[in-house]
């Protein structure tokens, strides 16, 4: 019986470590521009090509949106311990970030 309990504890421990690594941000993904910064982004038509490339690189994938939601779900204490990261994940998960990015691209597209 003790051998089975030990094996179960090992599996639970491995599962816990996997979950912690998955939601702790150990991936080497580039940081996205903050929602407030993106919302106040000033379009400069003289640097259209540079800004198009930069704003295009800020696109969030569905996987990033899901990861942001999982981080907030599994670590709700971050609203107190790290409110900036919690808010960033909330905006990424709710697609507000992507909507604002599309608006900036629209403004850039109207440049001559």
Explain the overall architecture.
The structure is a single chain. The chain has helices at 2-23, 35-39, 48-57, 62-74, 78-81, 83-93, 96-109. It is an all-alpha fold. The chain has one domain (30-109). It is elongated.
Stretches with pLDDT under 50, minimum 5 residues: none
Principal-axes geometry comes out as elongated
Terminus-to-terminus distance: 75 Å
Number of helices: 7
- Beta-strand portion reads under 5%
Order of helices and strands: HHHHHHH
Number of strands: 0
What characterizes the major β-sheet? none
Radius of gyration from CA coordinates:
20 Å
Helix content class: over 70%
Structural class: mainly alpha
The overall pLDDT, averaged over residues, is 83
Query: What's the number of structural domains?
Result: 1
Task: Map the helices and strands.
Blueprint: H1 2-23, H2 35-39, H3 48-57, H4 62-74, H5 78-81, H6 83-93, H7 96-109
Helix pairs in contact: 3-7, 4-6
Brief synopsis:
By secondary structure, this protein is mostly helical. It has one domain.
Keywords:
single chain, 112 residues, mainly alpha, elongated
């Amino acid at each position: 019986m003790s051998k089975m309990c030990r094996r179960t504890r090992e599996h639970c421990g491995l599962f816990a470590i996997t979950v912690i690594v998955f939601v702790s941000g150990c991936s080497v993904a580039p940081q996205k521009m903050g929602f407030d910064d993106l919302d106040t982004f000033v379009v400069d038509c003289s640097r259209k090509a540079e800004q198009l490339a930069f704003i295009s690189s800020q696109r969030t994938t569905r996987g990033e949106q899901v990861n942001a939601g999982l981080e907030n779900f599994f670590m709700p204490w971050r609203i107190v311990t790290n409110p900036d990261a919690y808010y960033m994940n909330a905006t990424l998960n709710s697609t507000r970030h992507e909507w604002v990015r599309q608006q900036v691209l629209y403004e850039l597209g109207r440049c001559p």
